[in-house]
């Protein structure tokens, strides 16, 4: 079942079109990466999903219910972490969590325990300080705790890792992994290594349009050019192999570095087969033949070409 | 003014003084502990709080705290 | 309801911790004390300062003078301080984006709006009547033969006038989004009311009667038709300000 369905969303600010016919859906139980450059329209999309912005046309459904601008009913299914979260600075973390719990309308047999558990998960359980004295990392951690207070079906994070140091990032990603068991996570980012670390599905947004969507491995498989490399025993072998491959139209961008020959191709499986045939014909035994796994970065760059 | 007159005003003047002093001390205590102001600012505010009766401490508590 | 109360509790904690309620308490308590004091004390002070040879006839002050002082102090200090302090009430939230968390947790806009309005009205009600009670007490102490004739109408009309200004403050705070623009809007509105005094027809219906004619009721003047008109106009304006603010806030972009 789709937890989030977005269809034909359009939005512009003045003459500038920010979202142009954006459609995608997020299935239950996945971590969904929403990727795009700064200014691609990620935050705008999220704000529309949260009912904070009005869309010009199109429809958004959360957990099967249509989102209506200015009406916050669907937000009971949602937890939200903005990129730079700001909280009431005169409250302590516990007081803030209590406020969040009360305004969300959620009831637990033991609300205090729920707050303690969430604060413990993000490592703020014994902070008696007011939020005005918090560091950025502490605020981000509180942000996750407060977003999860209503046990949301859908957790939306806007660039959750971009303001954090490497340790903070690692902590946050591992929290998202934990959350995934109960909650579907959508997070927007431009940090592609984070996507590879936690995402199951991704959609790539560019200039207000969804340019590609699918599971991470699917997108990599769909990549038009695939990289390969052959490691030979000697430099002379490498020269010969390079020479032979260069005559085959299947291969492009061939380069040689020491005894390694590398290049691109459009047909991954066919390319490896041809390389093996050529090696057999030349009677050369390679150390290693490899299809190089494409990175998210290549997927992304190709998608926004 | 004669002394009995002053005695007659004590029940109203004493609470008034207590209120003003409470306000001034509250503002001064906050000022001393305020880490968001530098030394020069603190001295200026201290003078305002002490010498501008009533308005001084209120101005500090509204605009000078730099907390929110 | 739970959300509204929780948000109101947040407002109360906020205004306690940032000294706003403390300031109101001090200011309104001082108004309560100062009004009878200056009514009683100023004529005597003037007399003692006068040259022996010049005799001026100063009327013996009465409880009416004490209330005249009270209403003028509430107008010039009490309401000004309250509107000044509450002016950033929405701007702070808009600027920092703190409402986003509340709204995205499913707290209805109307709950936020009503909690804000409740905060304004609770403060005004509590501190205005506290101040009036202090003045009442001291007025009885220093002017033992004072009567309470017309006192209810005088104090209630000022109270209602305050309710209207605070409703306008919240409406302008919702629209204008900046710290002190709401203060200017309320000031501008009061300025317009004063201009209206020049036209007799407007004067007859003007809410301004509620905050300028208070002392007249104490001297035994019978309230006429105009005061009922004034109450009606003020009531209608107050309801209009509250409803308009709520409607606009429901459609406000928060992010």
From TrEMBL, chain A:
CDD domains: ABC_DR_subfamily_A
Record keywords, A-Z: ATP-binding, Nucleotide-binding, Transport
Residue ranges of domain ABC transporter in the record: 4-232
Coiled-coil annotated spans: none
Species assigned in the record: Alkalibacterium putridalgicola
Protein name (Swiss-Prot/TrEMBL): ABC transporter ATP-binding protein
PANTHER family: ABC TRANSPORTER, ATP-BINDING PROTEIN
Keyword field contains Transport: yes
Record-level Gene Ontology MF annotations: ATP binding; ATP hydrolysis activity
Keyword Membrane: no
Highest taxon above the source species: Bacteria
Protein family: Belongs to the ABC transporter superfamily.
TrEMBL record, chain B:
Localization terms from the record: Cell membrane
Entry annotated with the keyword Transport: no
Keywords, sorted A to Z: Cell membrane, Membrane, Transmembrane, Transmembrane helix
Predominant cellular place of this UniProt entry's protein: membrane
Membrane topology, as annotated: Multi-pass membrane protein
InterPro entries tied to this protein: CLS_N
Spans traversing the lipid bilayer: 6-31, 43-63
Record's GO cellular component terms: plasma membrane
Residue ranges occupied by any Cardiolipin synthase N-terminal domain in the UniProt entry: 23-65
Entry annotated with the keyword Coiled coil: no
Protein name per UniProt: Phospholipase_D-nuclease N-terminal
Automatic annotation (TrEMBL), chain C:
Membrane listed as a keyword: yes
TM region(s), chain numbering: 21-42, 70-89, 110-130, 150-176, 183-202, 227-249
GO molecular function: ABC-type transporter activity
Name of this chain's protein: ABC transporter permease
CC per GO annotation: plasma membrane
Keywords annotated in UniProt: Membrane, Transmembrane, Transmembrane helix
